[in-house]
């Protein structure tokens, strides 16, 4: 197995870092790696904001509820970005552009572009011996994150990424069986057996892990999660920024 | 520079493949690599469909308008998937779940999950000496792709990925200058200088490349692209599948 596959297959999210900051050279390498991901029709419809200001990091950690948003080697925020596509447009051009720019297609394009870039950043970091974790919990108060980062119209923050030197190496979390996510030629609606198999795996994983043992299955976690609404404010926020309006 | 960074930084999209099919073992490795990407709150909210049936590949190539959707070593379709999260729900639970499942937050979660998995698949493929290209043009007729793959509610096809042994090695396409996508502490709205610099780079790239020389800048491409609406049917399709409804 080659080194790259080893890096990918050994992934675990790191939520505890030493005090070491990553160097400017490492930051540049990670961003360059992110930029080399594929991009839909060459749009490069994302931006990355590195947050170093302690007050801003503290405020973002408050939004997320996670101390490691403040305490890490570096914090990146990945944004879907259709702002720079209109910078040189005349007023009339901009009016014409909006119906296109603001449709669901371009919410998908910019979100996918940002995520592909982010995953390159994740793999690049891990290949250099660093650890990382995605921070979706910034969407606990997405408008607040927008304000902290001073985002213009047609730019929305999707998630953060913390990177640093791992202080702990947690166990690797199992995934659904391959046949539970990979189908041939058409969608397989009969997923009961792979879900049952996975629930058994997960119960064992939670029973055996060194920290934070519990009794739970994946199915129960998901049923609980989806019983109550969360982050309903993401919808009006995203619309207010000129995404998915049409 | 480590092997993984070299793989990432050498990326170029491959649109022409030899007749070699990739092996089942390679397919499994690529899917396992995809599965090891981070996933929001352990949701694993995506599915991957491998298409081998020649009629289906032909039909998908028609939708995309690209012959390499038919002629490749393997074709994957990546879907945002919230279907399996409800399989074991009672009817009453399902009713409660929908407001949550169908909000914009979970369109973002599932789209991001699918894209992170896909980029792991891309890097894994390239690390094995294969070439790949994303196929966003499946969204030219997203309902048709849905029908071909027999997708249930709460599953939407986002993009395809073709993988295979490269028949040609195209030149690498330049990216925006680093300071054009990476900002510190807040968004930088003054992007004129990086866009001007990039437009100059791009003009030179198109003038010098061996195939398909042309005179064009990135800014002009983007202004043209966004002048006319495209894929407006993605909006009602996505809503009809129970995404971004609330």
Description:
Chains A, B: Residues 8-162 form the Nitroreductase domain. Chains A, B: InterPro entries: Flavin_OxRdtase_Frp, Nitroreductase, Nitroreductase-like. Chains A, B: Belongs to the flavin oxidoreductase frp family. Chain A has helices spanning 3-9, 24-35, 54-64, 91-101, 104-127, 142-149, 178-181, 192-208, 218-227, 234-240; strands at 46-51, 74-81, 131-135, 155-164, 182-184. Chain A has 246 residues and is α+β, with helices and mostly antiparallel strands. Chain A has two domains: 3-170, NADH Oxidase (3-Layer(aba) Sandwich); 171-237 and 241-245, no CATH class. A four-stranded antiparallel β-sheet of chain A has the order 1-2-4-3, sandwiched between helices. In chain A, helix 2 crosses helix 5 and helix 3 runs antiparallel to helix 6 (142-149). Chains A and B meet through helix 1, helix 2, strand 1, helix 4 and helix 5 of A and helix 1, helix 2, strand 1, helix 4 and helix 5 of B. Strand 5 (182-184) of chain A pairs parallel with strand 1 (46-51) of chain B.
């Amino acid at each position: 197995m080659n080194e790259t596959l080893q890096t990918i297959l050994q992934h675990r999210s790191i939520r505890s870092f030493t005090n070491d900051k990553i160097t400017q050279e490492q930051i540049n390498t990670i961003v360059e790696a992110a930029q080399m991901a594929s991009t839909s029709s060459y749009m490069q419809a994302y931006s990355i904001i590195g947050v170093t200001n302690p007050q801003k990091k503290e405020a973002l950690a408050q939004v997320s509820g996670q101390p490691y948003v403040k305490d890490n080697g570096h914090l990146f925020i990945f944004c879907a970005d259709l702002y720079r596509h209109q910078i040189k447009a005349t007023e009339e051009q901009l009016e014409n552009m909006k119906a296109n720019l603001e449709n669901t297609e371009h919410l998908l394009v910019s979100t996918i572009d940002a995520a592909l870039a982010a995953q390159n950043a994740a793999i690049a970091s891990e290949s250099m011996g660093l650890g990382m974790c995605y921070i979706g919990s910034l969407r606990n108060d997405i408008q607040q994150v927008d304000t902290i980062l001073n985002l213009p119209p047609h730019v929305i923050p999707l998630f953060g990424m913390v990177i640093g030197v791992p202080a702990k190496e947690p166990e690797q979390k199992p995934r659904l069986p391959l046949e539970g996510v990979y189908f041939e030629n058409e969608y397989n609606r009969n997923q009961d057996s792979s879900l049952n198999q996975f629930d058994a795996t997960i119960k064992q994983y939670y029973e055996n892990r060194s920290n934070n043992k519990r009794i739970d299955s994946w199915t129960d976690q998901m049923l609980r999660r989806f019983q109550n609404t969360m982050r309903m404010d993401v919808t009006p926020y995203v619309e207010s920024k000129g995404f998915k309006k049409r």
